[in-house]
Design a protein that fits this description.
heterotrimer, A alpha/beta, B alpha/beta, C alpha/beta, B: alpha/beta, three-stranded antiparallel β-sheet, 22% strand, globular, C: alpha/beta, five-stranded parallel β-sheet, 23 strands, 17% strand
């Protein structure tokens, strides 16, 4: 085992993993974390804590991870290259490892122009692939990026994002291979609504044998409203929301849309489970954490395996 | 070339508000090609500022002159007689020009009439785009002649990111995704495999982030000793 | 005024180097008086040339590569008819003591007389005929050159102080030594060619066989052998032959045939004269050599012809050869021989003036001096048959020679123009130029021409003339590139609709003078001000605009409104002239702009800066403008200045652009009213010092 991560253990033992997501508040309010953690506890194997999602300033991921850990969650810290240079990144990596956080998701980060501080200077000292490699070298070589050695290495289970729906489509698997070569242990994909396209991507992935080198968790999410669907379709970079999905939600009366949105999510999960090479799902019910338990239950993934 | 743009008129008027006699100084190189600070623009701006001033009661005087380049001392020296007569110089040169004039004539306020925007080229007449970030360590040989530092919004070396859509950058549908362009061109050249190698973190110390940069070419420098021919006693 | 222009092909082709480009463009802008002045600078016989010139300028006119050449002669005529001059001729030299005698008042003699009088010499012209004009008066038919038109030009020369003595024949009424005794310091023989060449074939002695020149002379005088109802055969293919044929038609000939040695395209007569003759019904028989005149009893019955093999030999000399056995006959009652003219020099046999074996004057080709000291010769008498304008050039050369002789100076080699000649118009450029048909000269209908010798060509109206003149490409007078200011931004290369500027490998720009159409787009768009007009139009426009605002402000009237108006097309006619006058309306000045595409944003800004309350621009519709993209650029620049005016709080509605299609006077007046009303409602411009504050 590369780390003390429960998620790693589960995946290594061949179980179909379920990870969740938790977005910290744009404030110093610790209570919200505790509240959200309560929904997620026990229904997911690890919880991603987002880091300045869409370039909006929120409580730091590592801090919210710690709060979540205190609530009994297995947190996955997210780190973007947008806000920190390599010095700060390595400092934070050492810090989270010392705090007992076992999973890290390495991201490039949404461009600062999307968020509430568009005038901020984007750092981008590294990109996500360089970050993955840096964490791996810290863990496996016990070396800093500059080459200096360290005594106690951060033993983190390294994750990366993949987007089967971004362009250029042909190149996506190529890039995934690069992330694997850099040292990614697990992958979480962008939210899938176009299952067909995801299946195609998985085909290419399997062709390259990447599903055996890295654990792929398919991103899924319920949709609360037609507006939310449209927002994701048009305003979120790298998302593919087919019209059929929006129409499905439009086809039911307003008070039933959220219910339908949950059904939709369940259907997609079930379809995804049929696709060979998928090691688990990453369920993102952002600001709707309360529906996570029922979704996991409806797809028959409760209770979660408890490994010693 | 350095691409520059005239500042909004309000801002310029604000800058010159406290001065009575102002030299509007154009630049005959990049600022001219950018249609922002050449002789014609100097003429037009002078007319506009005179009118704006007169509408408020008048009292300002505007001199007009254009030199070939504001970044060469010999050309800058040309304006010395004019500088004595004015309270301020409104430079329509790039930031380099403004500073050169300020350095040469430290007693006169030098105001920037332009914003220096980027190093780039006209993709077509009137449409300028940024091409180079002056990182000081060019890797265009590795990226098929397309600069990821200047043209990728995140300066990725192992791009594209997940936000690339339809060949466009997530930041704006008007921006082509530089990595898409790189991939397309390397594919055309049969060199896509080269992208398999993970490019290591960039050495940013040679870029602007490293601090003000200087190049000292000892092979070019002329000292007073060099000016003395060999074999003669210096005076 | 700056002139870095190249010499255009029209001027280069003109024997007297007329500034064709200059006067054509003055006509195009409605400056008819100035056009006439320009013509008169180097042409003392403009009315004559306007009607009968061979116009080699038109042959070389590069517009011919686009559609048709400019109707230069017709425009010259227009200038003489619509332009006014005050009659005063500038003397180029101080009054001189010497007097010069000119023998002959044809175009050579008249030009020599005019030039010498301008130089300050006393000049007397001796003309043996009853009226001055030489061949112009005696032979050229009235339907081509009416006597009163010729008289107009002659009177102008007389007004210079030239004395013309008619009925004075050298060798008969006076001798050269008498002239010397009377104090003439030099003599110019401008005798012309007044002998009609005859033919040595059988039948020439018959009654019905006439010679060309006497026939033409009698036709002009209204007397002479009638050809009414007769079948007339004219032998010859030159202009005189055509004049004879067309005159015969007008005198009532039943049929008129021309038989000439030359093939159609070899005929020396003007192509347009041949075409007119054919239109009028003359039958042309080319490549026919006269063999004998057929007779029946004592009357002429026709002409026997032989087929011509070749007119010119291998060396290009006139040396006709025939297929003597290929014989044909033309029926006819009258045969008129028009095969050439010769000089009458028999009277010189007893003088010291040397003649060569062929009986021609011996003369120095540079100084035009004969063997006799102080006696010079010019015109057809030394050149052989030629055009009127060639004779004029010769007369000019003689005047220079006389002047040098009298001042005891060597005759200098003719001064070259000094300018580079305009080169070839590339097909690629010609393709980009808008096609504009040459304006047809209004002329008498065929049936109106018969039975009279009325002038056939009726002359252009104003609108025809200005539209025709507008077709001029202004060869060699376009954009000039100033290398030291150029920033190599390539704007000129990109904006030129004709592709004239090209970037060289060396990195500089070559604005090819031979391809430039003088529209002025690049001059305005250049951000470095590195392009100017070769003849300074850009500075002129700037000065005109500034002067207009200054003058309008001085009037004290309100509001001060400046209109920048195209000066071409209908704007150039006299109906429009009132708008351009200084006293058009108080406070309002309309400035002539040769196409609104030459208006710069800085012209407009300056107008406002100097105190105009309002400015408007009036141009033509894109489709009426000979240039391309003119309306596009003008509108863009106006829009930019409107924005500037809004930014400084003066208000963009003080500036407006209008386009008029084939403008009528009322429409322009409406625009002026509309603008003035609108501007009056705005606050007076704070740029102008009010009288009260002054």
């Amino acid at each position: 085992m590369k780390s003390k991560s429960k998620l790693e253990k589960l995946l290594e033992s061949g179980h179909f993993a379920v990870t969740g997501e938790l977005g910290p508040p744009p404030s110093a309010d610790a209570e919200i974390i505790k509240k959200k953690a309560k929904y997620l506890k026990g229904c997911v194997d690890a919880v991603n804590v987002t880091d300045g999602q869409t370039a909006v300033a929120r409580m730091a991921s590592w801090a919210a991870c710690l709060l979540g850990k205190e609530e009994g969650l297995e947190p996955t810290v997210q780190m973007t290259c947008r806000d920190r240079n390599r010095i700060a990144l390595q400092m934070d990596i050492l810090g989270v490892a010392a705090l007992g956080i076992n999973n890290i998701l390495c991201l490039t980060g949404d461009h600062q122009s999307f968020g509430n501080h568009p005038m901020a200077k984007g750092v981008y000292d590294l990109d996500s692939i360089q970050l993955i490699k840096m964490v791996k070298d810290m863990r496996d070589e016990k070396k800093f990026q500059c080459g200096d050695e360290m005594d106690v290495e951060p033993r983190l289970f390294i994750g990366a994002a993949a987007n089967p729906f971004a362009d250029p489509f042909e190149y996506r698997v190529f890039r995934l291979a690069k992330k694997v070569a850099a040292g990614a242990d697990f992958i979480q994909t962008q939210i899938i609504y176009n299952v067909e396209k995801f299946a195609k991507w998985m085909e290419a992935v399997r062709e390259k044998g990447l599903h055996e080198k890295v654990k792929i968790l398919a991103g899924v999410a319920p949709i609360k409203s037609v507006g939310a669907a449209r927002y994701m379709q048009t305003r979120v970079p790298g998302m593919d929301v087919p019209d059929a999905v929006v129409e499905r939600l439009r086809g039911v009366p307003k008070e039933e849309v959220s219910r339908e949105g949950i059904k939709l999510c369940v259907d997609i999960i079930n379809q995804i489970r049929e696709i060979p090479g998928v090691a688990g799902i990453h369920l993102m019910a952002i600001e709707w954490e309360e529906v996570v338990p029922e979704i996991v239950e409806q797809v028959g993934l409760l209770p979660r395996p408890q490994l010693s | 070339m350095i691409v520059v743009q005239q500042k909004p008129l309000d801002r310029i008027r604000q800058m010159i508000a406290d001065y009575d006699k102002i030299l509007i100084l154009g630049c005959g190189t990049c600022a001219t090609v950018s249609f922002a600070g050449g002789e014609k623009e100097v003429q037009a701006l002078a007319s506009i500022l005179r009118m704006a001033d007169k509408a408020k009661g008048g009292g300002k005087q505007f001199l007009e002159h254009t030199i070939k380049r504001q970044c060469e001392w010999e050309f800058v020296d040309e304006i010395e007689p004019m500088v004595k007569e004015v309270d301020a110089i409104l430079s329509l040169g790039c930031g380099i020009g403004v500073q050169a004039i300020a350095q040469r004539f430290p007693d006169v306020p030098v105001l920037p009439g332009l914003d220096t925007c980027f190093m780039g080229l006209p993709q077509e007449h009137g449409l300028f785009s940024e091409m180079c970030a002056a990182c000081g360590n060019c890797i265009l040989d590795l990226t098929a002649g397309i600069c990821p530092i200047a043209r990728c919004s995140k300066s990725l070396l192992n791009g594209p990111c997940g936000g690339s859509h339809d060949g466009k950058c997530e930041v704006s549908p008007d921006l082509p995704c530089a990595w898409q362009l790189i991939i397309e061109r390397l594919t055309k050249l049969g060199r896509l495999r080269e992208l398999e190698d993970i490019k290591p973190p960039k050495d940013w110390s040679t870029s602007a982030a490293g601090g003000m940069r200087t190049i000292d070419r000892s092979d070019l420098r002329i000292t007073s000793q060099d000016a003395t021919p060999q074999g003669h006693e210096p005076n | 005024m700056a002139d870095n222009s190249l010499r255009p092909p029209c001027q280069a082709a003109c024997p007297i180097q007329q500034d064709v480009r200059g006067y054509i463009n003055l006509i195009a802008e409605g400056e008819f008086d100035e056009a006439l002045r320009t013509i008169r600078k180097t042409n003392p016989l403009p009315s004559v040339c306007g009607l009968i010139c061979a116009h080699p300028c038109e042959t070389e006119c590069r517009r011919g590569q686009v559609d048709q050449p400019l109707a230069i002669a017709a425009l010259k005529r227009f200038a003489t008819e619509y332009g006014h001059d005050d009659g005063a001729e500038p003397q180029t030299g101080a009054k001189r003591a010497e007097k010069v005698a000119i023998i002959g008042s044809g175009p050579a003699g008249l030009t020599a007389a005019h030039d010498l009088a301008r130089m300050g010499y006393g000049v007397t012209v001796f003309e043996r005929g009853t009226a001055p004009g030489g061949a112009l008066r005696a032979f050229i038919p009235e339907y081509r050159l009416p006597g009163e038109v010729l008289q107009k030009d002659i009177e102008r020369i007389v007004a210079l102080g030239v004395e013309i003595k008619t009925n004075s024949e050298l060798g008969k009424d006076f001798t050269l030594s008498e002239l010397k005794n009377e104090g003439y310091s030099a003599v110019v023989l401008a005798l012309g060619l007044h002998l009609s060449r005859g033919l040595n074939i059988s039948g020439v002695e018959l009654d019905g066989v006439l010679l060309a020149l006497p026939f033409l002379r009698e036709a002009k005088l209204g007397a002479g052998k009638t050809v009414s109802g007769k079948r007339v055969i004219v032998i010859g293919g030159g202009n005189v032959a055509v004049d004879v044929a067309r005159s015969a038609l007008r005198l009532g000939a039943g049929e008129v045939h021309m038989a000439c040695l030359e093939a159609r395209d070899e005929m020396p007569a003007f192509a347009w004269e041949i075409e007119a003759a054919l239109e009028e019904g003359v039958k042309l028989h080319c490549s026919k050599g006269p063999k004998s005149i057929l007779c029946s009893e004592t009357e002429v019955a026709g002409l026997e012809c032989m087929e011509v093999k070749a007119v010119f030999d291998e060396e290009g000399r006139f040396n006709p050869t025939f297929y003597e056995e290929k014989v044909s006959a033309l029926d006819g009652d009258v045969v008129i021989i028009a095969i050439g003219q010769a000089a009458e020099l028999s009277f010189l046999e007893d003088t010291t003036i040397k003649l060569n074996q062929r009986g021609q004057l011996v003369f120095d080709p540079d100084t035009l001096a004969t063997s006799e000291e102080g006696v010079f010769a010019c015109g057809e008498v030394i050149s052989g048959p030629g055009t009127a304008v060639q004779a004029m050039a010769s007369g000019r050369q003689a005047a220079l020679a006389v002047d040098c002789y009298l001042r005891g100076e060597q005759m200098a080699a003719p001064q070259p123009d000094g300018r580079k000649d305009v080169g070839e118009l590339l097909a690629t450029t010609a393709e980009e130029i808008k096609r504009l048909e040459r304006r047809e000269m209004p002329a008498l209908a065929l049936k109106e021409r018969m039975g009279n010798f009325n002038l056939i060509e009726l002359g252009y109206t104003e609108i025809q003339a200005v539209k025709e003149a507008q077709r001029c490409l202004r060869c060699g007078a376009g954009a000039e590139y100033l290398e030291d200011k150029c920033a190599a931004c390539l704007t000129c290369v990109r904006v030129c609709p004709y592709g004239a500027p090209v970037a060289t490998i060396a990195g500089s720009i070559d604005i090819r003078a031979d391809q430039c159409q003088s529209c002025g787009i690049c001059i305005v768009e250049c951000p470095a001000r590195a392009i100017v007009f070769r003849q300074g139009e850009d500075s002129q426009i700037r000065e005109r605009v500034e002067a207009a605002v200054t003058e309008a402000s001085l009037s004290g009237a309100e509001p001060v409104v400046i209109g920048l108006c195209c000066s071409y097309g209908a704007f150039a006619t006299s109906a429009f002239a009132e708008f351009f006058r200084d006293n058009y309306k108080p406070g309002i000045r309309i400035v002539k702009i040769p196409c609104v595409v030459k208006i710069d944003t800085t012209h407009l800004l300056k107008a406002f800066e100097l105190g105009a309350d309002g400015v408007f621009v009036v141009g033509c519709l894109e489709e009426d403008c000979p240039y391309r993209m003119s309306t596009f650029w003008a509108e863009r620049r106006v829009a930019a200045v409107k924005k500037n005016l809004d930014e400084i709080g003066l208000g963009g509605d003080r500036l407006e652009m209008y386009t008029l299609s084939d403008p009528t006077v009322q429409k322009f007046d409406e625009i002026v009213t509309e603008v003035t009303t609108r501007v009056r409602q705005l606050a007076p411009s704070p740029m102008r010092n009010r009288r009260e504050e002054a």
